Amino acid sequence: MTESQTEESLIPNVTYFNVRGRAEVIRIILEENSTAYTERRISIDEWPDVKSNFTFGQIPVYEEGGLLLNQPNAIYRYLGRKFDMYGDSMLEHVRCDMVQEIFVDAQNNIGDFYWNPEFEKLRDDYEKNELPPLLTRIQDLLVTNPIDSGFWVGSRLSFVDIIAWHFLDHVRPFSMKTLQQFEKLCQFKEMIESRPRIAAYLDSDRRPKTLTVSLSPFGGTPETS
Predict the structure, then answer these.
(1) What is the pTM of this model?
(2) Which residue(s) pair with 15 in the sheet?
(3) How confident is the model over 166-184, as pLDDT tens digits?
(4) What CATH number labels 3-84+202-212?
(5) How many CB atoms are closer than 10 A to CB 169?
């Protein structure tokens, strides 16, 4: 194998649907670190024919040389370590883990709601009675960072900041007026998306147009993303 072939084999590849979804955190971490990567974007029509090719029939899949990872949170943690985005001490490592788990729950909460067949019937109640308490708990956790840097962990960007931003960007198209009631969360969101490399990606054609696939009652069209 030539040197150029070796270098090409180490270029990360991300396999996912042509949506933001669980691959968006991966893309943004790579973009923030100026890392070239390739993608295989699978269509919904193609998925039934290729699903069995993936471990547990799940994507995203992250490949890098001989490394193959197929659980999104494991991928996020790997990239956090790879790019020194996992805090600067054991206590910060643990806080990263805790924050990540909190956003797993939060993302599942809002994701399940967006996929609920009765979404339209339930949306007013969710917006008024479920979303504000959820965002309150999240904002209360943000301000417990003892350094008060605006980041979730320590004094600099970590991989969980990207996870947190991704969750808030899922809230934005559903109820920006609710999100705007949480000043610290809005300040955090603006801080992340104003970082030059992230801002360039968000404005680029490389970014998928929708939060999720078109089968979802919400988030599957550009108008709801």
Answers:
(1) 0.95
(2) 40, 61
(3) 999 999 999 999 999 999 9
(4) 3.40.30.10
(5) 19
